[in-house]
Every structure is written in structure tokens, then in C-alpha cells.
Amino acid sequence: MSTLYEDWVDFAHLGPKPAGSKMNEAASQWLEDSLKQEGITSHQHRFDTTVWTLKNFEPLKMVESDQILESYPAVGSSSGNIKQGLIERSGTTNIWHMYQWPRYTVKNHVGKVIAHITARPDGPPLSQTLLETWNYPHLFVGEDTFREWEALINSGKTPTVSFQIETEITKKELINVHGIIKGTNSDLPPLVIGAHFDTMYNTIGAYDNASGTMVLLHLIKHLFDKPIERDIHYVFFNAEELLLAGSKAFVNDFYSEKDSLNIMINIEGMGRGSQVDIWSTNPNKIKNLELLKSNFDSLHQITPPLAGSDHQPFVDVGHPAMMLTVNDQEIIHSRRDVPQSEMVKNMKILYSYLEKITV
User: Fold this and answer.
1) Which residues form the Peptidase M28 domain (predicted)?
2) How many folded domains does the chain comprise?
């Protein structure tokens, strides 16, 4: 059997795996084949959702200087050809109900709104998924551009930009990959363990979330022939980056009734840091925290959990849930998210912890 590291690198280097893409389909097949090689039967949970695709992007430029600004189209952006866009401050953009980032309106020469640009004020640019209706072209820029534009606006000047973007929005049938490892006591409510395997369009997603996907895959292979007390329902979620479409469909079809499971554990990105974050509905249901405390410099608990990942649909119908992550905001949703050695160390720690609390 290949190692956790080998599988992680191979899976990440399939390439970007945005929901609905050819590589997303290849990733789900990769997971099914990997389980099949170990004699583990998995199933396809099919669901329909709206898929956003980036067809073409001509970069954001300052018109006066022809300077290219690092930027990423928002998932949900519409198409547009902006030639002389005038930048104005216009409030904030809600990022996964966790952050409020400053937003700029882009207007034409007669004052009509033609696009929006959101700035990450405290780091390099990354892409995010829009929570509002998909009406306008929308880009994300980083801290450097934010500071440059603020200086211009504060001096009475108006930044003028250009960019071109072509997108497509379609309905597609997607696949979650799931299965059940049978326990010895069928009267006990099952444990659900999940991780999403899709990525944003602009990254191979070594951290977000090939790391969590591979921890789950190797945990399944380890537990498959072990005596466990309760059933474990595992699921590789698709379309997490499309407003949790895969986990919402999964909960609706399998776990819409409250009290039908023991707890849901969501394995999210294993980044390079030395702090593990645990988002949970009930800290008293978390087992063996000392195993994590002894391997990380710090442990940060958030209760109730924030809404930014696949545990949330379970929480919404009243299930207990927890998410494990080592946050790495410097590389998330960008081309900087590639395999790095510190991630492997944290993946192994989380794998060891999950192994002990599930057997």
C-alpha cells in the first residue's frame, strides 16, 4: 500500500479539481479506485447543483501605468469586459460568514456599476466564493493593491482599471464518494467522517483539501478490517467550494433527521502551522484532547462552530459536529497551495489522533 505522503502528492498533482470539471471527475474516480484496490466498496451519491466555470481571464491592470495587479476572479463572478473602470469604495463583502472584506465598486464614465472588486486587507490575494447573487464581474485583490488604492483615493485620485473575464454557469450532476465500515453494534448511532476533495479553480489544493482527503482515505483503509463498535459512514464531499453543495445534498438524503448519528467529524485543511483548530457544537463530546495538545504548540476551540465547511449542513439540522484543521490562510485558494513538508507532519498527527478515537 502506498504511503500517506505518496498518495497526497499524487492526488494533489492531478491538478485543480473545481466541481464539475474533468479533473474533478478524475479525482472522484481516483478515490474509488484507491479504495477498490484495498477491497473496500464505495458508492456514488449523485446530486444536481449549479456549477460555475472560468472560461477566460485577462488580468486586472491599472490603466494609467499598464501595471498588472495580482487578482483572482470570484467563484460566482459573471462575464464582462472592463476597459475604463473607475474604482470607488462601496462597503464590504461577506466571506463565508466569517470575514468582512472591503469592497470597491467599478463604474463606467457615466456612473453605472459594471463590476465589483473585493480586497483582502491582511494578506496576499486569493479567490473566494460569493454568497450573494451572481450579477456582476467580481475579482479579489490582496493587501498590496488595497493599500495602493486607499492611498490614491485618500489623495483625491480615482484608480482606473481594466480586465476581461468570461464565465459559464450550468446545471450538472456531481458525485460524493461514500461508504460504510460496519461496527459490531448496529443499535448505536453511526459516526460520520468526511473531507471535501474539490478545490478552487486556481490551485491544486495540497492544503485545501488534498491533505484532509488523504487523511480520511488512509483512515478508512486502516479501520476497514478492525473491530469497531459503531458503524462509520465515510464521505468524500464534492462541491464544498460551491457553498457546501455536496454536503448539503448528502445530509438531505441521509441525515435529515435529528439524533440519527453520534457525531460528524469534518477533516479540513492540514496546513503548515503549529496550532490546531477545533470547531465543535459541544466540546464535551471531543475525546482525548491531550493527544492533540501534546503534539501542537496550541489548541484553539471555537464553539459553536463557524459556518465555513462541510460540518455546517449537519449542524443546521441539529447534529453534533466538529471540524479539525490547521489553518493556513497565507496559501489557501491560491497557486501557493502546494505540497510542503510541514503539512505532512500535521497530517500524520491528525491521522494518529483520529485512529485512536475511532477504534
Assistant:
1) 176-342
2) 2
